[in-house]
Give the backbone structure.
Amino acid sequence: MGHNKQGRTVPMTSVGSGTIQLVAHQVHCYTNQIVNVSFVGDRSKWVLVDAGMPHSGSKIMEAAEELFGEGAKPKAIVLTHGHFDHVGSLIELLDEWDVPVYAHPLEAPYLTGETSYNEPDPSVSGGMVAKLSAFFPNKPVDISEHLHNLPHDGTIPFMPGWQWIHTPGHTQGHISIYRASDKTLIAGDAFTTVRQEDMLEVVKQDMEINGPPRYFTPDWEAAELSVKKLAALMPHYVVTGHGVPAFGEELVEGLTNLAGNFQKIAVPEHGKYVDRDK
Ligand SMILES: [Zn+2]
Ligand SMILES: [Zn+2]
């Protein structure tokens, strides 16, 4: 069992390199090295949100079996966006699970091998991860055969009660996933709950609501609007792509603070995607 900052006990098990944590009703977060994937649903029908780091397919499948039993297979995979740390094991997984993959149409060129993302910007505010980001792959994967656009009406196939929300900035086609009934939010990289650029913070995993990962975010104006959109939902439970799940007052305060002071908290002082340098 693990504890979050409210001292609340949450069910937690360890699998492979990571832990599985129950975040909200039928939402499990699995931490795969530096990134989180989510399992949403129950044994009879579940969806994987994001596909982790490269070479982690077997670990993600192991986590799925731990949760849903032997041979567990999702109905679909939904992507918040196509960065390498969110699609790293996608091809491995699709080899085993022949399932549809849903993403925002603006993300499609990065998922069909057409376009590469901009180079990460290792110059943004110190920290080892920012420096290392120069070595992160930005080559696109090609999953054309499996790729489908998310429905226009905001619904998500196989995820009744959930809606997708366009939250661009970190990438153009970035989405967040929201369940209004209990205010559960899967935010992808729209914001993080850790100072992602700082290696020490990544290791310690203290909760701190922060902007999207700086080294990969090209449009800070859009990113700010997206955070404001998500803060206005006043979510009760949040899973982000990076950092620990967040709950309750600490979450509301942190997210409100980020939305209100986005320029100061999230936007790096300098960097190749920061307007004030131009
Ligand atoms: Zn990202
Ligand atoms: Zn990420």
